[in-house]
What we know:
This protein is of the alpha/beta class and 481 residues long. The protein is built from 23 helices and eight strands. The chain has four domains: 84 residues, SRP54, nucleotide-binding domain (Four Helix Bundle (Hemerythrin (Met), subunit A), Up-down Bundle), CATH 1.20.120; 194 residues, 3-Layer(aba) Sandwich (Rossmann fold), CATH 3.40.50; 125 residues, 434 Repressor (Amino-terminal Domain), CATH 1.10.260.30; 31 residues.
Amino acid sequence: MFESLSERLEGVFKNLRGQGRITEANVKDALRDVKMALLEADVNFRVVKDFVARVQEKALGREVLTSVSPGQLMVKIVYDELVEILGGDNAPFALQAGRTNVVLMLGLQGSGKTTFCGKLARRFAREGWHPLLVACDIHRPAAVHQLQVVGEMAGVPVYSEGTGRPAPDIARAGLEHARATGRNLVIVDTAGRLHIDEVRMDELQSIKAVTSPTFTFLVADAMTGQDAVTSASTFNDTVGIDGVCLTKMDGDARGGAALSIRAITGKPVKFIGTGEKLDDLVEFFPDRMASRILGMGDVVSLVEKAQEAFDEKQAAKLQTKLRNASFTLQDFLEQMQQVKRMGPLKNLLELIPGLGSALRGVDLPEKDLKRTEAIIQSMTLAERENPEILNGSRRERIARGSGTTVQEINALITQFLETRKMMQGMMKMGDRARAAAAGDGPASLTGANLSAGERARRLQRKQFEKRMRQQQLKRRRQRKK
């Protein structure tokens, strides 16, 4: 996502940081490059014009021109403006408890609307909601069957009546069925058309009237650029929408649709699809996306992915195993599989600040991970739990089963044993450091042999450091306000 835009902006700021001082001339030169980068990213020209004007107004202020780090301040100004055009203070999406929530999905044919319905259903089913998919696309051949297939993959029931009744009647009946069966989330899949002029808006307006949706979303293809923005404007003016869901964002290196929709339609982007799988769905946060565009990473999203993929009890169990060197190849395999559930390795590393640009064009060894997984899966459970029993004949059998060589088996086992030993040492060092900080360590570390004056000075220093941290925290909160 946004790869070409990120690359262009990175070059602009690199040149700006190399300047001895910021002047009106080099600010205008930099903004000219920013303008070209945004236009090449297929951002609406009116959005680009307003964006550059606001950045220039702030960049030519006294604070920037007299700053000791003007390049960094310029990045901050551009970041703030990017957040604003991406949605500003876009509130996190939340369903309403204690009622039957209805999400009405609109869109053109080919935008991925039906699959997106399944992605939303799967996401909220995992969060404890009870979704029901309702098939109201009675015009496209096999549309009902497609939704049934998607619903089965997502583990969510589908209400359908075929194509014999009008779509509004099916929507009404689906809502009644949801209430009768205790379903608190209804996602209605509607019919699309090949072109916006051919969409029968009266049918969509009727479905909206009978369902009174909690949210009405337009599903648009991010790769169509400004056509997606045009669709959003038309649907909003005719039917009325609450937000936009962009599909195929993983294949859009420009990002013009995401950067234009809010400014043109006034409606925020709420979700983005980042792949073909049902789990490839991300809630859209303007501040996080602006950080990615400027190469600052997205640690919050990385932590959220980790929390979804890793079990807290299992993590505590793993920590104990690392401490006493009982970590096995089976444990290693389970950790690899959990990381895989978080997504491709390159996508994860790009969320770490500073690594996005460094990894551009780098081919990460995903094949090596698959090879390692194949080797471990070719072992018996006893061999995974105790790799020391792997003699020559066992290693030859594993090599045949995994399609590798004995040399690769030997290298993996050696690396695993060395890593386990190193991790045990690191865990013990961490335990000793925590014990010393808590006052449970040796007397020479805890201060038991220190004089009363030295202990008082140390206590005074700790209290001073604590006050300084509190003041820093207070200043940060004031700046955020």
